[in-house]
Amino acid sequence: MKAFEVIQQKLVELYRLEVSFVNPAVLQLSQQLDEYIVAIQKLKAAR
């Protein structure tokens, strides 16, 4: 969970700097965060 929170915070900070969701760096972090969300959901569903 810690990695998820770190990426989430980086995404927020980067978006505030770039003010754009289509910035490549913002998109990359967003996609990485999406992967964590899917992994967490799969873990919860497997219980």
From TrEMBL:
Signal peptide: none annotated. GO terms for molecular function: protein dimerization activity. This is Aspartyl-phosphate phosphatase Spo0E family protein. InterPro entries: HLH_DNA-bd_sf, Spo0E-like, Spo0E-like_sf. It comes from the Bacteria. The lineage of its organism: Bacteria, Bacillati, Bacillota, Bacilli, Bacillales. One of its GO terms (biological process) is regulation of sporulation. It comes from Brevibacillus laterosporus (Bacillus laterosporus).
